[in-house]
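W.,

You were right to be curious about this one. When I first looked at the sequence I had no strong expectations either way, so I just let the prediction run and decided to look at it fresh. Below is the sequence, 169 residues in total, followed by the output.
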Amino acid sequence: MSPLSGTSARTGVLRWLTHALAVAGGFAVAGIIVVTVADVVGRRFGFPVKGAYDLVRVLGAIAMACALPLTKAVKGHIAIEYFFQQMGPRGRAVVDTGMRLVLLALFGLLAWQFVRQGRNFLESGEGTATLRMPMFWVPWLAALACLVTAGVTLWHLLHPGRSMMRPRG
């Protein structure tokens, strides 16, 4: 077994998690559409969707959190290219490495805080206003998305100049 085979397996898991979260985010967006349309049509006929606001809020949080890893993996983020291109290759490498290290710390801190918030929600019994749906799992899902995003950032740090994935379609 070569020393790189473990790295390849970890990259495969990271890619799988990234895609799985993207699919969950896509379903969340579809859910927002379905709930919104059903609520608008239902209101027209006197049957609004109970808890539509709660559902759209939770689904929106899921969609945003789950989009982070794939956006980072395909380098779909916004970059200030003008200033970056004004630097030489060494300056770009230093700034790029520095920013990735900052992102690793940021997403690690966010994951930790989301786990704490989820635990607080679980202990307090926090739920949505109308449906009283438990909320502890939403920050935990966001924590997972932040950890996967940190993993993608680490991959980019270890493989400079390469994209972990290519956008599809």
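Here's what jumped out at me. The mean pLDDT is 90. And, maybe more interesting for your project: The radius of gyration is 20 Å.

Coffee later to discuss?

I.
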